Amino acid sequence: MGHNYNSNDHKLPDSKAKRYHIKKDENMEKINSTKLEGFEKEINMGSLKEFEDFVKWTKQTDSEKQIFVIKGHGFGIMQPLERILDEKDGPDYANDTLPVYTIEKVFDKNLEKKLDVLIFDSCAMATIETAYQLRKHAKVMIASEAIMFYSAVYNSKTEKWEVLTPGIEYEKVLDYLTKNPQADTETIAKAITSSFHEKFRDDRLLWDNISTVDIVEDQEATLSATNLENLETFVDKFEKFSKTLINRLEDDKTREATVKALYETMREVQKYMPPDFDGLFTYVDLFDFLKKLDPKVKDEELNNSIKTLKKSDIIIGSVYNNPEFKDSNGLTILFLEDLDQRLEEEKETASKIKNYYSKSDFAKKTGWGRVMDLYQGYYPQFYNW
């Protein structure tokens, strides 16, 4: 996670961070809640120190439920490519970035109980790898599989981008919590995803009626809530699925059919291309991947594993906004793109991406990196079917 904010592009009357004890009132123009003393300063929340200080501070709250929001640029379990290429992972390197591994360590050290809801108001964070890495620290994770939705449009008259409504609909979330203080965690998660769906549906109508701006691309919007407390069981089952794939890829008799099934699946599956990685890997919708792979393999053990995984109850709610994302089901999984025709330097970059990915709990548990290695190693042999 990271955020680089250019103050020259965004003129703010006061850029100092502040903390408030929020109290409800009807004034939409002025903050009347109590400002907490001693916190008004310039801070960089991409800094490990500032992030850890904030997490420690949250322990002072006596609330029955806790919702923790992380907002900024997101890359899933990965992090900015330049950091991966430098192969540096020290806490003070790239001070504007909080990798998922760092977030996990800070939570592990400082959280006394699980968060009720962890929200990533960021791009591409609804990944099985991220969810599994943080499974011990939150009951529910809310995030987007795709680019995080913002009503941002380019005004050709002022030659500036204008943000109409950013990210999660916090006003509606707070309103719901105020009216439903006894709601359980899953109900709260469903309310957040539902309000987000209503937001981009309404904003689509708003955009269609704006004549002073040029819409440069279609909106991209997905949001899902994942039950992290059920994730251990799901990943145990996925491990069996992954190992069956590995066995088939290592077996001379089943290798070609398995490579072909994966090759064809990757050309049909719902994809979300993260920026900044030169198209070397993609995130694919996990459940759509299973659905598309199932009829392409004739293996009772593998088909039964897929059937079991598809019956999972880990997704509490999932919404999307246009037909391009109709096969979005709530969580993605990383898969390397075909590397056979790539330049040697790109293959070297892909190797570093794989090494970084291999640190994840999910990769260690399931052997998913091995699946990708075997596929990449064998598919060129069967490239022209």
Kindly state the percentage of residues in helix.
25-40%
Strand arrangement in the largest pleated sheet: 3-4-5-8-11
- List low-pLDDT spans: 1-13, 203-218
Q: Could you state the order of secondary-structure elements as H and E?
A: EEHEHHEHEEEHHEHHEEHHEEHHH
Number of distinct beta strands: 12
Query: What is the terminal separation in angstroms?
Result: 41 Å
**Tally of contiguous helical segments:** 13
Gyration radius, in Å? 22 Å
Arithmetic mean pLDDT: 83
Strand content: 15-25%
3D architecture notes:
- This protein is α+β, with helices and mostly antiparallel strands and 385 residues long.
- It has two domains: 20-227, no CATH class; 232-319 and 329-382, no CATH class.
- 39% of the residues lie in helices and 15% in strands.
- It contains 13 helices and twelve strands.
- It has helices at 48-58, 81-86, 100-110, 128-133, 170-179, 185-208, 231-250, 255-266, 286-293, 300-310, 344-357, 361-366, 368-378; strands at residues 20-21, 34-35, 67-71, 115-121, 138-143, 150-155, 160-166, 222-227, 271-272, 281-285, 315-320, 332-336.
- The strands form four sheets. A five-stranded mixed beta sheet has the order 3-4-5-8-11, covered by helices on one side. Strands 9-10-12 form a three-stranded antiparallel beta sheet.
- Helix 5 runs antiparallel to helix 6, helix 7 (231-250) packs across helix 8 and helix 7 packs parallel to helix 13.
- It is globular.
- Residues 1-13 and 203-218 have low confidence and may be disordered.
